[in-house]
Amino acid sequence: MVVHPPIAVCPGCQGFERSWIDAPAQASVFAFTWIHTAADNSVIGCLPYNVVLVEFSGLPEVRLVSNVIDVPHAQLATGDLLNLVWEATDNGQMLPRFRKI
Ligand SMILES: [Zn+2]
Predict the structure, then answer these.
(1) What are phi and psi of 97, to 5 degrees?
(2) Which of 46, 50, 54, 66 could form a disulfide with 27 if both were Cys (CB 3.0 to 4.6 A apart)?
């Protein structure tokens, strides 16, 4: 069973053994919304931005909250195919984001 986010106990078998797998390079949009009002001053410059629930082919248990980058407001739809891209934040943390294929 594949579980995301990682947790201590497998919900399928209650086991403690875990291993990592690489995220698939491709995904699709399961659901999305556009944010037009900043909840914090740090994101005012990003408005409007999308929040996307991404699903991966072959991993039906896994959905990931992320963003689709470089996409105009009217060109994002459920089912859109995406490529995974890793983006570095200002502090060097790597975030999984997506770009339309
Ligand atoms: Zn298990």
Answers:
(1) -130, 175
(2) 54
First to last CA, the chain: 28
In sequence order, what are the residues at sequence separation of 6 or more whose Cβ sits closer than 8 angstroms to the Cβ of residue 20?
Answer: none
Distance CA 27, CA 33 (A): 17
- Residue recorded with tokens 């497998």: 10
Ligand 1 centre from 1 Cα, in Å? 6
pLDDT value at 16 more than 90: yes
Q: What is the DSSP letter of 24?
A: P
- In this prediction the pTM is 0.86
15 CA to middle of ligand 1, Å?
A: 5
- Confirm if 21 and 2 have CB atoms less than 8 A apart: yes
Q: How far is the CA of 36 from the centre of ligand 1 (A)?
A: 40
